[in-house]
Design a protein that fits this description.
The protein has three domains: about 5-135, YojJ-like (1 (3-Layer(aba) Sandwich), CATH 3.40.1700.10; about 140-280, Ferritin (Up-down Bundle), CATH 1.20.1260.110; about 285-345, DNA polymerase, domain 1 (Orthogonal Bundle), CATH 1.10.150. It is about 55% helix and about 15% strand. The protein contains 15 helices and eight strands. Strands 1, 2, 3, 4, 5, 6, 7 and 8 form an eight-stranded mixed sheet that branches.
Length: about 350
């Protein structure tokens, strides 16, 4: 499990919390800061120190960090609740951290599920702990370089994916779609999702510095999840719900390597060798083309697939045939017919 983006965003550049952390880091202080849920009784974790309930300000946190003990804030960082506290986590909780401050932070996060920030004065590093996850705050210059490179890669991948989708879209309407090509598209799409998931925390961490990058990321991959979900619905051996398609994609994202056979089996084709990819007949349903190219509501697309079974049959239906489907009147039937005819002729790619 990764640290939620909302937690990283709390400490992004431009926020008051980030200013105080950078001030502490710049002064070569160490610090242990715990964001607690006030509804949870965690008095057994803290000994000594001072308790209070004051509004947060970067200057206050900076001064309190000069003390030896930990500092506690409320969950959203709007109030400071205590300082100079001796933190006592369960020592039986395993941790791979080495320094005392970071071992304590890791154990507290695992024990309570709270967000914990550890600042190392020796290594000049800010580390976040949340539940079983760890995230090291990156140098801004390094972040900018990483995000720039990732967006460049994503853009190239997306251009290639769109070309592949245009080609298979035309093949679908001529009943020439091949399972091998569909698998290659799924692999490429899941790779894009993986890169997106890797770069999102970096963009979030940039805070106000990353607004332009956030817009670029949305432009490149904003529709990728829904698009791939529709693609899985089109090519799975069974007519799945969109939620089931999402689960398949989620499981594929967890795999380190996406082999063609693994992906084929994930969408219901129990193949034993690569050669069967070229031998297996497929009849894509057409949800994707109907939603994105034709522009009809998903409910109407479902009615069409139910009536005609696949996009090839739909594209060969007459206007009168289309009008016989629930939810399709004269104008919509003409639009569907003409749009699919144009795609078949290569006029819309």
């Amino acid at each position: 499990m990764a640290i939620p983006l909302a937690k990283i965003k709390m400490l992004a550049p431009g926020t008051k919390l980030r200013k105080s952390l950078e001030d502490i880091l710049g002064a070569k202080f160490g610090a242990l800061i715990i964001f607690i849920d006030e509804k949870v009784n965690c008095d057994n974790l803290f000994q000594g120190g001072f308790r209070f309930d004051i509004n947060f300000a970067p200057e206050k946190l900076y001064e309190l960090a000069k003390m030896d003990g930990g500092v506690i804030l409320d969950q959203d960082g709007s109030k400071i609740l205590g300082a100079n506290l001796h933190i006592v986590p369960d020592s039986n909780i395993p941790t791979t951290e080495t320094g005392m401050r970071h071992r304590t932070a890791d154990r507290i996060a695992k024990q309570t599920g709270f967000l914990v920030v550890a600042i190392s004065s020796r290594r000049n590093v800010i580390t976040l702990y949340f539940e079983n996850s760890k995230y090291v705050i990156n140098d801004i210059k390094l972040l900018l370089a990483r995000v720039t490179q990732a967006l460049y890669t994503l853009e190239k991948y997306r251009v290639n994916l769109d070309k592949m989708l245009n080609q298979i879209e035309l093949a679908e309407l001529h009943n020439r779609a091949e399972l091998r090509n569909a698998i290659e598209i799924l692999i490429k799409g899941v790779e894009i999702q993986k890169i997106r998931d890797q770069v999102e925390p970096y963009v979030t961490e940039l805070g106000t510095e990353g607004n332009l990058f956030k817009m670029q990321l949305e432009e490149i991959v904003g529709d990728i999840d829904e698009l791939l979900g529709m693609f899985v619905k089109d090519y799975h051996s069974q007519d799945l719900s969109y939620e089931d398609a999402e689960n398949i994609l989620s499981n594929l994202k967890k795999l380190k390597e996406l082999g063609p056979l693994v992906v084929a089996r994930s969408i219901g084709f129990d193949l034993s060798n690569i050669g069967q990819l070229d031998e297996t007949a497929i009849s894509p349903r057409g949800y994707r083309v109907l939603k994105y190219a034709v522009g009809i509501p998903m409910s109407i697309a479902c009615n069409l697939v139910k009536a005609f079974k696949n996009i090839y049959q739909i594209s060969n239906a007459t206007i009168d045939d289309l009008k016989g489907v629930e939810g399709i009147a004269d104008k919509r039937a003409v639009t569907i017919f003409e749009t699919l005819e144009n795609i078949k002729k290569g006029n819309i790619l």
